[in-house]
């Protein structure tokens, strides 16, 4: 599969097929914690980065046998709303395969634009993120492409809430030393009250970020943030999407497809793709031999990532 990956067994969305609309790491931001590594193209140019028709054809072929899935999630190696065909792809799924919930994970940076919000209004769940409100903290943690103002992003999220009648989960990534100060948490809380999502989801570092030396938030810190956001509904999701399940026999290409979108430990690969240790090790050895992967040390061990 070129544009589809997984399915991922997600605590939030159930068994979820991923769609990646970007050929490489293309995003409006370059977050220090990004598990996909440094942004290769930091841009706000919206265009057809991969052919919409090809994505729809691959979806059609995958979905026609009616696989067991709960959701289809726009995620992967960058910001999916940068792809101008996202609305057509959402409409294709909802018109032809309406039993599957469509989820859009977005950094929210383009939602101040009416045309971008309109494209994703037929999704079932939208999960925008907001990690900072002050320009200083926003600049340090999200490192956006030129011209993004957090207040403009918040206004876009407020408008999305007015127009979108289904579920919005607002994800906040907590990074110690960046956005866990009392003042920033208060600003975040006030902004989230304005946005009025169905729930807030607190996330933190699970894999190496694009910058070395970052720490994950521990449970007491996440609880402190939850208290600071009272009375908003806040779920601590942490490491919610680690496990991946697959029904078919997996091999080198499946391992590569997985770690291209989500750097993984050997245990993640074994559990996720339902491989034996020997199968996973053989696949990793082969990918090393081909020069297609490398590894980086993280809190849970060595993480393999694609080159
Ligand atoms: S974490 Fe999301 S918004 Fe940030 S750089 Fe990575 S893909 Fe872009």
Output the keywords.
10 helices; binds iron/sulfur cluster; globular; Arc Repressor Mutant, subunit A; alpha/beta; 307 residues; eight-stranded mixed β-sheet; 2 domains; single chain; two-stranded parallel ribbon; TIM Barrel
Explain what this protein looks like in three dimensions.
With 307 residues, the chain is of the alpha/beta class. The protein has 2 domains: 4-241, Alpha-Beta Barrel (TIM Barrel); 249-307, Orthogonal Bundle (Arc Repressor Mutant, subunit A), CATH 1.10.10. Helices cover 35% and strands 19% of the residues. It contains 10 helices and 12 strands. It has helices at 52-63, 86-96, 114-119, 135-142, 150-163, 182-195, 219-228, 252-261, 266-273, 277-289, and strands at residues 4-10, 14-19, 26-27, 41-42, 71-74, 101-106, 125-128, 167-173, 199-203, 234-236, 293-298, 301-306. The strands form 3 sheets. The chain has an 8-stranded mixed beta sheet with strand order 1-2-5-6-7-8-9-10. A two-stranded parallel ribbon has the order 3-4. It has a two-stranded antiparallel sheet with strand order 11-12. Helix 8 (252-261) packs across helix 10 and helix 9 crosses helix 10. It is globular. The two termini are 18 Å apart. Mean pLDDT is 89; it is low at 240-250. The protein binds iron/sulfur cluster (SF4). Iron/sulfur cluster (SF4) is lined by residues 27, 29-31, 34, 36, 39, 78-79, 107. Iron/sulfur cluster binds at residues 27, 29-31, 34, 36, 39, 78-79, 107.
Number of domains: 2
Q: What is the total tally of β strands?
A: 12
Radius of gyration: 19 Å
Overall 3D form: globular
Largest sheet: 8 strands, mixed
The distinct ligands, each listed once, are:
iron/sulfur cluster
Q: In percent terms, what proportion of residues is strand?
A: 15-25%
Give, in order, the helices and strands: EEEEHEHEHEHHEHEHEHHHEE
């Amino acid at each position: 599969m070129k544009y589809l990956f997984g399915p991922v067994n997600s605590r939030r969305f159930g068994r979820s097929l991923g769609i990646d609309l970007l050929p490489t790491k293309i995003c409006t931001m370059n977050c220090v914690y990004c598990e996909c590594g440094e942004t290769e193209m930091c841009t706000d140019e919206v265009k057809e980065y991969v052919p919409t028709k090809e994505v729809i054809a691959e979806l059609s072929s995958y979905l026609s046998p009616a696989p067991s899935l709960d959701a289809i999630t726009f995620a992967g190696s960058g910001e999916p709303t940068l792809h101008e065909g996202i609305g057509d792809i959402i409409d294709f799924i909802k018109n032809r395969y309406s039993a599957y919930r469509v989820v859009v994970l977005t950094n929210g940076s383009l939602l101040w634009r009416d045309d971008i919000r309109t494209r994703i209004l037929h999704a079932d769940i939208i999960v925008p993120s907001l990690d900072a409100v002050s320009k200083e903290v926003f600049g340090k943690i999200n490192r956006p492409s030129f011209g993004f103002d957090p207040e403009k992003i918040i206004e876009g999220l407020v408008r999305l809430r007015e127009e979108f009648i289904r579920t919005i989960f607002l994800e906040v990534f907590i990074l110690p030393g960046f956005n866990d100060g009392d003042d920033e948490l208060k600003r975040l809380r006030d902004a989230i009250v304005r946005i009025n999502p169905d729930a807030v989801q607190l996330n933190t570092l699970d894999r190496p970020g694009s910058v070395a030396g970052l720490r994950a938030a521990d449970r007491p810190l996440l609880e402190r943030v939850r208290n600071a956001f009272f009375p908003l509904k806040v779920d601590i999701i942490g490491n919610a999407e680690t496990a991946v399940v697959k029904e078919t026999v997996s091999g080198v290409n499946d391992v590569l497809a997985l770690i291209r979108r989500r750097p993984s430990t050997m245990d993640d690969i074994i559990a996720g793709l339902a491989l034996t240790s020997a199968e996973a090790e053989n696949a990793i050895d082969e990918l090393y031999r081909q020069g297609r992967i490398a590894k980086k040390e993280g809190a849970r061990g060595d993480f393999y990532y694609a080159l």
